[in-house]
Design goal:
This protein has about 425 residues and is α/β, with parallel strands linked by helices. The protein is built from 19 helices and 9 strands. It has 2 domains: about 30-120; about 125-430, Metal-dependent hydrolases (TIM Barrel, Alpha-Beta Barrel). The strands form 2 sheets. The protein has a 6-stranded parallel sheet. A 3-stranded parallel sheet has the order 1-2-3, sandwiched between helices. It binds zinc ion (ZN).
């Protein structure tokens, strides 16, 4: 079926609040030597590996010192094999619209590299994300600064408080001790340190984020303090002898503490569920969003932002979001993992779940350019989904356009209190300066 042009135009114009990125700051980008391959590093390279690209070639492609002609020879056969996927499509759209190159091939990779280098000057990130993408604010889970990235462009970015380090035991203790300059020798001191972490960053952060699904199932038992204390004392004396069961007890306990602090600080809780980044290692049974249901029941005042449509458990996530008032669905990353599943998911959500519970876009990239391609795919998917619902007489056109504003901007503005947070983050940048 065709897309209603009026809906597409309206969806295209919406200023977006992007609920999940790993974006670098512009000052980081400007110090780097860049070339065409950079656009593929995150995530398209994973599809090249799935198509057969070897680890040693990948290392060469990632090395900024390797000449681009050599890179192209390594890259081309696997790009031709994998360029059909949405990971690659997002990059192709960015290359076409931002650098005005219709097709990436052996005749254009040098020109593309030259154009990228010419553009890599102050203002480049704002040009891509604000001017071209029409992103008002992007929420960042920084991967290079531990718990929280303090130095940031507060006009464009907000920052998550990352608690994933608290979900590894016993390294959580050492990492908190170092970060807060405290000594943790008892469970009570550990609890104090977690509280301090939230006191330090809770007001500046837009949310907390944890992606422990990469290494553990998402069921978190509510462990009594007495049990945690026993394991704490036993494992801190002999950290090397910690068993997986003891690690579970301590990290289950820690995550419940985090959830309680989030309620106090009114911080949404962003949780990775579903598909894993990378290659050749995925434990699908850890990733089902339904594993989190005991938390949804126990903490009605918390706000759980469930990532990546739980792919491939989208059906479970529709049911969970329909059932629990404290669960939100987040389509970040989804439009490039599987755009068809994403469109079906959104259509099902819009006919089964209140529209106020949906965040429809997060680029989930470290670099700015592919966000542009991802957002084009998302806007197109959303417009198509809404057009179908109008044609099926489920919505009027006006209702469809109102829903688009909600899911791309208004819901996130309200749930993450973005204006208030931006003001706090701005002030923090000035104090730092
Ligand atoms: Zn991510």
């Amino acid at each position: 079926m065709s897309i209603d042009p009026e809906i597409l135009q309206a969806v295209d114009r919406i200023q977006v609040i992007d609920t999940h990125e790993h974006q670098e700051e512009e000052w980081q980008r400007l110090t780097q030597k860049i070339d065409f391959y950079r656009l593929f590093t995150h995530y398209a390279a994973s599809d090249l590996v799935t198509a057969g690209l070897r680890e040693e070639s990948l290392r060469k492609l990632e090395n900024p010192e390797v000449p681009i002609d050599e890179k192209w020879r390594l890259f081309e056969p696997f790009y031709l094999a994998a360029r059909n996927t949405a990971y690659c499509k997002a990059v192709q759209i960015a290359i076409r619209d931002l650098y005005e190159i219709e097709e990436l091939d052996r005749k254009t990779y040098v020109t593309l590299t030259e154009r990228m280098r010419e553009r890599n000057k102050p203002g480049v990130v704002s040009w891509i994300l604000r001017d071209r993408c029409r992103i008002r604010l992007a929420q960042v889970n920084a991967l290079d600064t531990g718990y929280f990235r303090v130095k940031t462009d507060a006009e464009l970015f907000q920052q998550d408080l990352s608690v994933v380090d608290l979900l590894r035991w016993p390294s959580a203790v050492e990492s908190l001790e170092r970060h807060l300059d405290v000594s943790i020798t008892s469970l009570a001191a550990y609890a104090d340190a977690i509280e301090k972490l939230f006191a330090k960053y809770g007001s500046m952060a837009d949310a907390i984020k944890q992606q422990s699904a990469y290494f553990r199932p998402q069921f978190f038992a509510d462990v009594p303090d007495a049990d945690a204390e026993r394991v704490f004392n036993a494992t801190l004396k002999k950290p090397k002898e910690t068993t997986p069961e003891q690690e579970r007890v301590m990290t289950d306990w820690a995550f419940h503490r985090c959830v309680r602090h989030c309620i106090e600080h009114d911080l949404p809780i962003k949780i990775h569920t579903g598909y894993e980044a990378g290659n050749n290692d995925m434990c699908l049974e850890n990733l089902n969003p339904n594993l989190l249901s005991n938390l949804f029941r126990q903490y009605p005042r918390a706000k759980f932002d469930i990532f990546h449509i739980g792919y491939p458990y989208e059906a479970e996530l529709v049911a969970v979001a329909k059932q629990y008032a404290n669960v939100y669905v987040d389509m970040c990353w989804a439009w490039i993992i599987d755009p068809i599943a994403s469109r079906h998911f959104l259509k099902r959500c819009l006919t089964a779940v209140p529209a106020s519970k949906i965040f429809a876009f997060g680029g989930d990239y470290m670099y700015a350019e592919p966000v542009y391609g991802h957002l084009r795919l998302a806007r197109h998917g959303i417009a198509r989904c809404l057009s179908e619902l109008v044609e099926e007489e489920f919505f009027t056109r006006d209702q469809a356009i109102a829903v688009a504003h909600r899911i791309l901007h208004d819901n996130a503005a309200i749930v993450f209190r973005v204006d208030e947070k931006q003001e706090i983050l701005r002030r923090a940048q000035q104090t730092k300066a």
